[in-house]
Specification:
The two termini are about 25 Å apart. Strand 18 and strand 19 form a beta hairpin. It contains nine helices and 22 strands. It has two domains: about 160 residues, Adenine-n6-DNA-methyltransferase TaqI, Chain A, domain 2 (Alpha-Beta Complex), CATH 3.90.220; about 190 residues, Adenine-n6-DNA-methyltransferase TaqI, Chain A, domain 2. By secondary structure, it is an alpha+beta fold. The strands form seven sheets. The protein has a five-stranded mixed β-sheet with strand order 3-5-4-9-6. A four-stranded antiparallel β-sheet has the order 2-10-7-8, covered by helices on one side. Strands 15-21-18-19 form a four-stranded antiparallel β-sheet. Helix 2 crosses helix 3 and helix 5 runs antiparallel to helix 9.
């Protein structure tokens, strides 16, 4: 992507203050006793996975320790980059962040820029673009743990296209509206996911599903019996997962047969697994790995995918028709109670991961599903549960699909905006006119 704007090195855009660019502290500078239940949050790679900054979970340092590490502190308007581990991650401390100050971890580095020269958000979006990612990773080490050689020096020398500030404002306004919609959805989705998890636990772990009188079964004197899983409702049965669901294998079509590929059917692999319930169907997943024809099975929406090799136990629901490779299994409930089965599997993840230890790499087989046992509820209880959670799962799927479209739209716009190919619309134009 060739830009029509002049290019300027990062070192010419630094804020006029000490430690405008700096790495996180060495691990030896932070000890166990420095961590507290609340305090100054540490930004790790996991916090750079959603939008500007994923603030769902932090580790915290004492204020005294954070003051000692103030050279690695970031505040609103600063950028954060991963220089070791999952490279290419970029974060931005936005004006409505939960905390005014954070400390970056030993695998991150910080950047403060002069807003009179470049808008921090403009720079954030540049580094999210293909050109920005390419330049960020030019000095990536090819051996050992993925890392950027001489991180801060490399970052200083990166050149970025720099239009006038008023053009930067226009570009940021377009992308910011997209990001805000994505971030708002990312706040709603985990709350909906927690809601169905709480309800599942209430009904199928604590046995407080409604009895014939609509009262909580267990606390209303429901009859329980001993089982290999402990106390369970008297009419429930302990069964392996393989008794209630079909466990189906995936497969990769022959790569040498070109007509199988470059189609519009998403092809799911472990690297596509998501922390969300529904898998993120990215444009790359379709254009680079999409299938035209499929000599492996095609699975429909709400099929459960579980990763079975390498990183075992990642669970996702298919957001649309998909195929999957041989490193996964597909699970389909015998009565098509997919939401119930998905939450059953979520509850078994720790056991699944623990059972996957292998001599060469972690893996599970179909036979292992004979050992994953549950207290299976009667059909009428599961049907009632499915009826309650169905609209919640459908809303989760809708929001996830909207996010997929917004992310694809953003990624399509990025190279055009940073090359100067597109005219920046008036600020009065609203993003909702864009057809998703």
């Amino acid at each position: 992507m060739k830009s029509n704007w002049p290019e300027v090195k990062i070192e010419e855009l630094l804020a006029d203050k000490k430690n405008a660019i700096a790495m996180g502290p060495f691990g030896s500078r932070i000890k166990t006793e420095n961590f507290v239940a609340s305090g100054i949050p540490i930004i790790k790679g996991q916090n750079l996975t959603k939008g500007w900054l994923n603030e769902e979970e932090f580790s915290y340092l004492t204020k005294d320790k954070a003051e000692e590490l103030k050279s690695s502190a970031v505040e609103r308007g600063d950028l954060v980059f991963t220089h070791r581990g999952t490279l290419g991650q970029v974060g931005y401390i936005h004006e409505n962040s939960k905390f005014p100050i954070y400390i970056v971890s030993q695998s991150q580095m910080k950047l403060s820029v002069n807003p009179q020269k470049v808008l921090p958000l403009f720079l954030y979006y540049f580094f999210k673009s293909k050109l920005g990612q390419h330049r960020l990773l030019l000095n990536k080490s090819q051996t050992g743990v993925p890392a950027i050689a001489r991180p801060t020096s490399s970052l200083k020398k990166i050149e970025v296209p720099l239009p006038p500030l008023e053009v930067q404002v226009g570009i940021v306004n377009i992308l910011k509206k997209l990001e805000e919609k994505i971030n708002n959805n990312n706040l709603i989705i985990p709350n909906l996911e927690k809601l169905v998890q709480i309800l599942f636990k209430r009904w199928f772990i604590e046995y407080e599903f409604p009895n014939q009188n609509g009262e909580p079964y267990n606390s209303s004197g429901g009859n329980l019996r001993n089982s290999e899983l402990g106390l369970i409702p008297a009419t429930w049965e302990v069964v392996p997962v393989s008794n209630i669901a079909s466990i189906l294998s995936g497969g990769t079509p022959k790569t040498r047969i070109s007509e199988y590929w470059d189609g519009n059917i998403p092809f799911y692999t472990p690297k596509d697994s998501s922390s969300n319930y529904y898998v993120n169907v990215t444009e790359k997943m379709i254009t680079e790995s999409g299938l035209n024809k499929c000599n492996s099975k095609l699975y429909h929406k709400n099929t459960i995918f579980i990763t079975a090799r390498g990183t075992v136990g990642k669970l996702n629901l298919a957001a649309s028709d998909m195929a999957m490779n041989q490193s996964c299994y597909a699970l389909i409930h015998n009565e098509k109670y997919q939401y119930y089965l998905f939450l059953v599997m979520k509850n078994l993840v720790r056991q699944i991961v623990h059972s996957s230890n292998g001599a060469v790499f972690n893996a599970i087989t179909k036979r292992d599903f004979n050992t994953f046992k549950i207290a299976d509820a009667p059909k009428k209880v599961i049907e009632k549960f499915e009826k309650i959670v169905k609209p919640i799962f459908e809303e989760i799927a809708t929001l996830q699909l909207e996010n997929n479209k917004l992310i694809n739209l953003r990624d399509t716009l990025l190279p055009q905006l940073f090359s100067g190919e597109v005219t920046i619309p008036d600020e009065s134009e609203e993003l909702q006119h864009v057809q998703l």
